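ARCHIVE CARD
CATEGORY: sequence design from structure
SOURCE FIELD: tokenized fold
FIELD CONTENT:
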């Protein structure tokens, strides 16, 4: 439920009047025709416990420089300090932007890796080597350095199957229903209330203040 006075109280505590925009707790769902496999892949890309008090959803583009910064400087500390301790359930969602010619292909490789339980390693590698594959389009070369030959065969088959776009399209549709038009876009939910943080990401310091406030409520 959307409660304006709750938001005023939040920003009064943090002194961050421009931190976030509240959105209704019941956000439009993705199209009903989305395949079950797409839903399962979302779970494979998530980290932490579903019973965590706070859920963070991140809409990202692997070729987006701001998403690289968000992953390395904000999400990694959140994973280490909040996800690992059961305080946050982190859900990664794909939102490849048309301006990035290789971002959808990168999302396919990441989703394929998720299906065999290697999403975290491939995600880290894609961001670490973003400038390399972003200029050449040779995403497979980066993934090869992370996975075993047997894992690569499975992942390559999944990428070539064309079946992974359903999961990507589902994330994009969900993002569009929330008016996402820039990456990274983060949504924080607790107790049925969802807050959209400023598009483009926030620093770990600011997000930490916000999470600590929510956990004390």
């Amino acid at each position: 439920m959307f409660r304006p006075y709750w938001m005023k109280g939040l920003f009064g505590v943090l002194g961050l009047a421009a931190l976030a925009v509240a959105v209704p707790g019941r956000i439009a769902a993705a199209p009903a025709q989305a395949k079950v496999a797409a839903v399962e892949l979302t779970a494979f890309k998530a980290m932490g416990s579903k019973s965590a008090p706070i859920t963070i959803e991140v809409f990202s583009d692997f070729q987006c420089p701001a998403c690289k910064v968000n992953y390395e400087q904000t999400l990694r500390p959140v994973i280490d300090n909040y996800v690992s301790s059961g305080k946050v359930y982190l859900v990664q969602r794909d939102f490849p932007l048309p301006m990035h010619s290789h971002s959808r292909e990168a999302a396919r490789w990441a989703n394929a890796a998720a299906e065999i339980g290697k999403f975290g390693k491939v995600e880290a590698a894609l961001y670490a080597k973003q400038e390399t594959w972003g200029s050449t389009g040779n995403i497979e070369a980066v993934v090869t350095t992370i996975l075993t030959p047997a894992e690569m065969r499975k992942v390559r088959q999944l990428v070539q199957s064309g079946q992974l776009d359903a999961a990507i399209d589902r994330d994009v549709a969900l993002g569009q229903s929330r008016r996402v038009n820039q990456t990274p876009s983060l949504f924080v939910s607790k107790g049925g209330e969802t807050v959209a943080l400023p598009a483009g990401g926030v620093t770990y310091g600011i997000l930490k203040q916000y999470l600590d406030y929510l956990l004390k409520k």
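CARD ANNOTATION: The first helix runs from residue 4 to 14. DSSP finds ten helices and five strands in the chain.
SHELF: design records, drawer C
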